[in-house]
């Protein structure tokens, strides 16, 4: 994938700034932030919020969320293999400056970030089916998305543009899936019970 020079330069500089500001404690934290299993308690919390709002209808969410994440993951992988933009940690021009944690880099290509696409898709979908959720709950979802995206840049696996475009992909898919979901299954407009 050939980007205009000024975009590539800006993307690279921003990547080096974020990836270069490393610290052993932040390394440890963001390495675990980027792991799937770290978020199991958070996913359980989301399930609890859905259950408190929709009770018996909660089961309807499982197949749609599974399909949403599957489509997001597969589309982001397809884009990686189509655009063939090297991850910064695999780019020969950058490798000597990239700081890796536990020597983890990921596959060869990075555009777009699957982490970014999947987390954004999940967060926006949940927000759209819980339109009256509390501000605190909305901030929790925002932190979930931002932490995951930032960690991918910090850990050397993605350029900022990979993450931004991953977020855009996830957002679009969440809007499509939530619209289809609302048209197919009538869900109530109860207020989500979160921290209130």
Description of the structure:
With about 200 residues, this protein is mainly α. It has seven helices and no strands.
Number of helices: 7
Over all CA atoms, what is the radius of gyration? Answer: 18 Å
CATH topology: Vanadium-containing Chloroperoxidase, domain 1
Shape verdict: globular
Strand content: under 5%
- Please provide the count of β strands: 0
What's a concise summary of this model?
This protein is an all-alpha fold and 196 residues long. Helix content is 64%, strand content 0%.
Key words describing this protein structure:
disordered C terminus; single chain; mainly alpha; 196 residues; Vanadium-containing Chloroperoxidase, domain 1
Which helices and strands appear, and what pairs or packs with what?
Elements lengths: L4 H16 L3 H10 L6 H15 L6 H23 L30 H16 L5 H20 L5 H25 L12
